[in-house]
Structures are given as structure tokens and as C-alpha cells.
Specification:
The structure holds 2 protein chains of 2 kinds. By secondary structure, chain A is mainly α. Chain A contains 20 helices and no strands. In chain A, helix 10 packs antiparallel against helix 11 and helix 19 packs antiparallel against helix 20. The chains are: A mainly alpha, B alpha/beta.
Chain lengths: 549, 240
């Protein structure tokens, strides 16, 4: 039987051609050309030093046995995680176009699955390159590591597909709730038996000893009979990575390839009836993407009952803040709750660990939240990518509109920033002054970041959902926005810091300098709102809309 | 050409379609009618082999869709209500792929005719991501017509089409049926069904209320042969 008919091979070739055509078409406009060149430049800057260091270094600079010892356990862990996540009957994934064209097309299930696996394999080539670069210090041959990494990723791809099919077959065979309960109980019992069969050292009270003992415990798990048997299929991959010469590497690679082919054979042999569940999942996914593209955020509104109380008019800005705020609380109720609990949970963890001054770790969390917040809380112009024409028609000044649009993400992020500052002050009252300083300055940083994100969006509108893996223009765009954010922040803090230092030096009062610095920084933040408004005013929806991006 | 025998589809406890039987012969255009949730799309997808039946047998051209799926699918084409195209492929490449899938040798000539008829000629080199909804619908229709299927299934085929597109669509379906194909059209547009279809299948909550020629439906559910399909539909479904 022909596992991959000519028409499916043609389709795969069309996808490859389409990928390059999209890159070419993106680069045809001046905007696209600049972004492509920046993207290529960034890629070279990241990739070249690693290749050069490998070329001139000669051999591995770190201990190569680390990969050999731990790779099988790592692959086993990934496989188990895959198994657990597919246990609920997660379907084999297809795009909506594939379900519309291939499922009713003249193909059997194995042929469609083979097409899907080959198509997914393209992604493993990119993933393997990242892996090989990441572990370049532990290996002597980049190419050898790349081949092994590709094989390992292929194995995991085939394994996850096989697991999905097994889940499907089990669901068909054991449809009643008690049959499924028995399967879950048996699986849990087997897992617990494996866990308790591994030797565990006694816990210690000192952190460094804890870490060393954790590694020792993990080594015990790795070397136990059960785990060694379970990791046996992954052994050739580890041996191939750590092979000392070309001949033995080739031999181990060949053995690894046999394991991969065996898993592919299992995958195709199972022939689970995935069409219905995959088609349903594809439709669901397409609806989610549509919603995300309409709202500009990854989370879709779920809870109708939640709403903010009406806000004052504020020249129209109140309605804008209310709309974005209500959307935010409806869309991110659960994520916000989880994030809040995660931050709050840091306090008892630090107390339990005996950390008396939590300032360092908490400042780290604060920086992380502030950096990630720009991408997470997109309840501003970016969320209105399909409503920009409606915003243009609103009877209000563009400055008030810009202020209203920026308010919701800034306030949301500020809530988390203040929570962290509150924990710092609560755990160490002597750091109250420092916590207060952080609490008044960090929202200003957020305003600058969100303003830059919005100006960039309004000058070159785009949709998050349209970016594809390996899209150089999207990478370049993100890098340029990141650079612009820090340049703007450096300018604001530089001027504010200079004024604050001057005032402090002239008056001899440190707090006076701090206040002066804050006033200047706040003034600068107020000044970015008209910049966002200017970007909105110059946005020409007829020629440069996100609908074209 | 299409035979559905005792088709039943159950989702957990919910019966989407119950013991449905009907035939669509060559040359017939069957209008599949029913309120939302009647089981129309489930039935169409089951005929295409996308949804496995819980019970019953579905066949196209004598080939059982479960036993000989490739042979059955080779004879049919399906246009879903909201067709999704491959984002990175052009209009012409979609037709090229459809031709390769169904083994159409002289596809370029046929593609030119279809593109002209559906007014897609100027868009032939456009990516599908650059097309409007109506245009995407036309591309899916062109792909479905390319291999001259013996059984054609269309779910809400007129959504997004302009008046000329609707007229072209209707005439092409009639031509296909005249050429001996069996056509199934699922639609809420009763005027379309009245204008186009020779036979009716009315479903309600997964059960068959009526199957037969349009004229028979008029006499079965209303006083006279001149009753509108709207009257027939409401009579049939409100009493159920």
C-alpha cells in the first residue's frame, strides 16, 4: 500500500513552497524588507558565535557524560508527560483545511496520518537545531548532535501520536464510566509502584545539601531496575550523542533510527479512528483562533456575569476603560487568580525556606512580571485590531481615547506589582521604604512599556494570530519593540534620575531628590499619551490596516 | 448513488440521528431540511466518512464508506458550510492539489472554465488568506466540481455568495445532476431548496419526518399542490 500518495506529497511540497513564498512576499514591501533583514541579522548574531566557538574549540568544553547519563531519563519523562496529557483522549491534531480537504478526500486513515506525521516532522528539524545549539558545549559534533536530536524529536512525535490513538481506541473499547475508572486506578497503581520502587535518601535541612540529595535521589531513580528497563529504548540516542568517534556515532544513530522507525510502524499499525475527534477539535481550534483574532487576546471571554461598575464619563475615556476592564476580568479571571495565588504563595515558601530578606527574589519576580505583562495584558489598542474603524468614529479626543486604552493594562499590571511590593514589606518591615519606592516607580515603567507597544502597533498594525513559526518578520518586530521599550525607559529614567540626583545634591535631602525624580518621570509618562494619540491619528485604515497583515 | 440504511449516531447519551434511511439516485437533487440540531451536518459528514456511524450502513456508488472508504470517497465531493482553505496556497494551487488527489489529468482546462464561471480568474494567484469569505466558498466549490463527482454534498452552499455567484451555483448543480450525479443540498434557505431540489428529506431531532419528491411533500403536509415550501416545512416540523 502506498502510504503517501503523490497528491499528498504534492501538498507537502506546496506547503514548503508556500512558506518561502510568504517570506518573499513579506519582504517585498519596505516595511517587510526592514523587518526581514533585522530578523535575519538577529538570527545570524545568535547562531554564528556558537558555530564559531564550536569550530575553534575543537572538542566539548563541558562534561559530555551529562547528556549520556541524563538524556534517556529526560526522554522517558517527556514520554510519560505526553502519555498523561493524552490520556484524556486528546485527538491527533489537524488544521481545519486538512480536515475539510483530506478527510472527505480519497485517502485512508493511515495515508492521512502519514501526511500529518511528515508535515509535523518539518517542525522537528527546527526544534532539533535549537536543542543542538543549546547543548553544543556538551558535544564534540554539532552535526552529530543535530541528527540525534532530530531522531529523538521524531520519536517523541510518533510516540505522542501513538498515545493519542491508544487513548482513542481505549475510549471506544471502554465506553462506560466504571471501565474507565478501572483503567485510571490500574494506571495510578502502576505509577505509584514504580515511584516507590526507586530508592529515596533521607531529607536534609540545609539548602545545598537538599540540592545535592535531590540529584542523588534522581540518580537513584535513574539507576533503579524499573527505570533502566523503561529507558532502554532511549539508550541508543544517548550513546550516539556521547560517541567518541564518527564510526560509533554512525552505528548508534542507525540503532536510534531503527527505534524511531519501529515507533512509526506502531503508530501506523494502530490505525485508530481519529477522524471524528480530530475534525471536531480542528473546528474548535478554528473558532478559538477566530475569537482571538477578533479580541486580540489569547483568552476568550467566559464569564458573562462579571462586569466592572460604571465609571465616570471623563470625556469618553471612562467608557473605554470600562469596556477594556470588563473584557479583561471576563477573559482572564482564572489566569489572574492563578497568577495572584502564585505570587502570594511565594511568601510562605520563603518563610519555610528560612529566607529572612526576600527582597532579591521578589525584585526578580517584579522585573519578570513587568517584562511579561506587555504581552499578557493586551487590553488596549492591540485588542481592538478589528475595531480600529469604530474607535476612529468615536466622538472623543484621541488623547483621552489613548489614555483610556492604556489605563486597563497599566492598572492590571500595577495590581501585581503592588502585591509583590506588599510581600517584600510584610516579610521584612525594615525594607518598607524600598518597597514603597518600587511601588511608586514600577507603574511608570509599565506606562512607558505599554505606550511603546501601542505606538509600534499603531504605526505597523499586526495580528498576533497571523505569525507563524520561523516567521523572521515577527521575530524582528518583537526584537525592535523590545529595543524601543528599553530605549524609551532609559531616556525617561535617565532624565528623571539626573533631575532627582541634582535636587538631592542641591538640597541635601535624599527624599526630595526621589520626589523630584518621580515627578519628572510621571511627567514624561504623561507625555507619552499624546504620542500614542498621534500614532492613532496618523493611522490610515484604508492603506495600512491589520486586515492586510 | 447514495444509500443510507438505518443510520444512527449517538454522542454519549445524545441521539443526533436515529435509524435514518434514504436513497439519492443519479440525477436527483435532494434538499436536506430541518431546524438547527436536526442532524443534517452529522448525516452529511457520515456519508463523507468523517463521522463513523454508531449503527447502520452508508454507501456511495455501492461502496460502503466504512469498508471501502477510498473507493467511496473517490466518487464524492463535500463542501462544508464554512470551508477552510490552506493559508499558504494560492487559488490555483488548491485546484492543482484537488486534481492530483482525484487523478484529473486535464485539470488546467477544467480549472480555467471553473475559475471563469465562478469569477475567480483574477484571483487565481492570490493566497487563500487574501480572499473574502465568499471567495473562499467559491474556491471550495471549484475544487469540489473539478473531478466531476458522482455524488456532491453541500452544506449551506450559498453563504457569502453574491447574486451572480448564486445563479452560477444553481445552474452548475442542475448541470451536474442532469449529467447523472446525485446532489445533496443542506440549507435553511427554503427558496433555494424550492427552486433547485427534486426531492426533500426533512429531519427533526435526528428523526426523519419526510423523504420523497417535493410534490409529495406539498400534498402530505398542506392542502394543495401550490403550497409554498415554507408552509410545508413549518407544518412538518411544528407538529413533530
Amino acid at each position: 500500500m502506498n502510504l503517501l500518495p503523490g497528491s499528498l506529497r504534492l501538498l507537502l511540497w506546496m506547503h514548503v513552497r508556500g512558506f518561502w513564498r510568504r517570506l518573499y512576499r513579506n519582504a517585498r514591501t519596505p516595511k517587510g524588507l526592514v523587518l526581514t533583514l533585522v530578523g535575519v541579522g538577529l538570527f545570524i548574531l545568535w547562531f554564528l558565535p556558537m558555530l564559531l566557538s564550536m569550530r575553534f574549540r575543537g572538542g566539548p568544553s563541558a562534561n559530555p557524560s551529562v547528556l549520556r547519563d541524563w538524556l534517556p531519563l529526560g526522554m522517558l519523562t517527556l514520554s510519560v508527560v505526553t502519555l498523561l496529557t493524552t490520556a484524556g483522549g486528546r485527538p491527533v491534531t489537524f488544521t481545519p483545511a486538512e480536515t475539510d480537504f483530506l478527510f472527505p478526500g480519497p485517502y485512508n486513515r493511515r495515508q492521512i496520518l502519514m501526511y500529518r506525521l511528515v508535515r509535523s516532522s518539518f517542525g522537528t528539524l527546527i526544534g532539533a537545531a535549537f536543542f543542538s545549539i543549546g547543548f553544543s558545549r556538551q558535544t564534540s559534533s554539532f552535526f552529530g548532535t543535530y541528527v540525534v536530536a532530530t531522531l529523538a524529536f521524531l520519536f517523541l512525535l510518533f510516540f505522542s501520536t501513538a498515545a493519542a490513538q491508544v487513548g482513542q481506541l481505549l475510549a471506544e473499547k471502554f465506553s462506560s464510566w466504571w471501565q474507565r475508572l478501572v483503567i485510571v486506578v490500574v494506571a495510578v497503581a502502576l505509577g505509584l509502584a514504580g515511584f516507590f520502587s526507586a530508592p529515596m535518601p533521607a531529607p536534609s535541612t540545609r539548602p545545598m545539601e537538599d540540592f545535592a540529595q535531590a540529584i542523588k535521589a534522581l540518580e537513584g531513580v535513574r539507576d533503579s531496575v524499573v527505570v533502566r528497563m523503561a529507558t532502554a529504548p532511549f539508550e541508543p540516542f544517548a550513546r550516539a550523542v556521547a560517541a567518541p568517534d564518527l564510526a560509533s556515532r554512525a552505528a548508534w544513530c542507525a540503532l536510534s533510527a531503527c527505534v524511531v522507525v519501529a515507533m512509526l510502524a506502531v503508530c501506523l499499525r494502530l490505525d485508530g479512528d481519529y477522524l471524528e475527534s480530530s475534525a471536531t477539535a480542528a473546528i474548535k481550534k478554528a473558532e478559538q483562533v477566530k475569537k482571538a483574532m477578533r479580541s486580540g487576546v489569547a483568552f476568550t471571554p467566559t464569564k458573562k456575569g462579571l462586569r466592572l461598575p460604571p465609571l465616570p464619563h471623563w470625556g469618553g475615556a471612562g467608557a473605554i476603560v470600562w469596556r477594556q476592564g470588563t473584557t479583561a476580568v471576563r477573559s482572564m479571571r482564572i489566569p489572574l487568580l492563578i497568577m495572584g495565588l502564585a505570587v502570594v504563595a511565594m511568601a510562605p515558601l520563603m518563610i519555610a525556606k528560612g529566607i529572612k530578606d526576600p527582597t532579591g527574589p521578589m525584585v526578580g519576580i517584579l522585573v519578570m512580571i513587568t517584562l511579561l505583562g506587555g504581552g499578557l495584558f493586551r487590553f488596549d489598542f492591540r485588542a481592538d485590531v478589528d475595531r480600529l474603524d469604530t474607535l476612529k468614529m468615536l466622538p472623543m479626543s484621541s488623547r483621552l481615547l489613548a489614555a483610556g486604552q492604556l489605563a486597563t493594562p497599566v492598572v492590571m499590571l500595577m495590581a501585581f506589582q503592588w502585591l509583590v511590593c506588599g510581600i517584600v514589606a510584610a516579610l521584612n518591615p525594615s525594607r518598607l521604604g524600598f518597597a514603597l519606592t518600587l511601588a511608586v516607580f514600577t507603574p511608570l515603567v509599565s506606562i512607558v512599556f505599554f505606550a511603546v507597544e501601542n505606538v509600534a502597533f499603531l504605526l505597523v498594525p499586526n495580528r498576533v494570530a497571523t505569525a507563524t513559526p520561523g516567521d523572521l518578520t515577527a521575530i524582528a518586530r518583537n526584537a525592535l519593540v523590545f529595543l524601543a521599550k528599553f530605549t524609551a525607559l532609559a531616556a525617561v529614567l535617565g532624565v528623571a534620575g539626573g533631575v532627582g540626583f541634582g535636587v538631592g545634591w542641591l538640597t541635601g535631602v535624599r527624599s526630595a531628590g526621589m520626589v523630584a525624580g518621580w515627578v519628572v518621570a510621571a511627567g514624561a509618562c504623561a507625555a507619552v499619551v499624546p504620542v500614542v494619540a498621534w500614532a492613532f491619528d496618523r493611522l490610515d485604515l484604508s492603506s495600512d490596516s491589520a486586515a492586510n497583515s | 448513488m447514495i444509500q443510507v440504511t438505518e443510520f444512527t449516531k449517538v454522542y454519549d447519551q445524545y441521539v443526533a440521528v436515529s435509524a435514518l434511511s434514504f436513497d439519492v439516485l443519479p440525477g436527483q437533487i435532494l434538499g436536506l431540511l430541518g431546524p438547527n440540531g436536526a442532524g443534517k451536518t452529522t448525516t452529511m459528514k457520515a456519508i463523507c466518512g468523517v463521522i463513523p456511524p454508531t449503527q447502520g450502513r452508508l454507501a456511495v456508488g455501492g461502496f460502503d464508506i466504512r469498508q471501502s472508504p477510498v473507493e467511496a470517497k473517490r466518487l464524492l465531493a463535500y463542501v462544508p458550510d464554512d470551508p477552510h482553505l490552506f493559508e499558504a496556497l494560492t487559488v490555483l494551487e488548491h485546484l492543482e492539489f484537488a486534481a492530483a488527489a482525484y487523478g484529473v489529468a486535464d485539470w488546467r482546462g477544467r480549472a480555467d472554465v471553473l475559475l471563469t464561471r465562478l469569477e475567480l480568474n483574477e484571483k487565481r494567484d492570490n493566497l487563500s488568506s487574501e480572499l473574502s469569505r465568499g471567495m473562499r466558498q467559491k474556491v471550495a466549490i471549484a475544487c469540489a466540481h473539478l473531478h466531476e463527482p458522482r455524488a456532491l454534498l453541500l452544506d449551506e452552499p450559498l453563504t457569502g455568495l453574491d447574486p451572480r455567484g448564486i445563479r452560477n451555483m444553481k445552474s452548475s448543480l442542475k448541470e451536474l445532476a442532469d449529467g447523472g450525479a446525485a446532489v445533496v443540498v443542506s440549507s435553511h434557505l427554503l427558496a433555494l431548496v424550492e427552486d433547485l431540489c427534486t426531492h426533500l428529506l426533512i429531519l427533526h431531532k435526528g428523526r426523519k419526518l419526510f423523504a420523497g419528491p417535493v410534490e409529495d411533500a406539498r400534498t402530505a403536509f398542506s392542502q394543495g399542490a401550490d403550497a409554498s415550501l415554507e408552509e410545508v416545512f413549518f407544518k412538518a416540523t411544528e407538529g413533530a
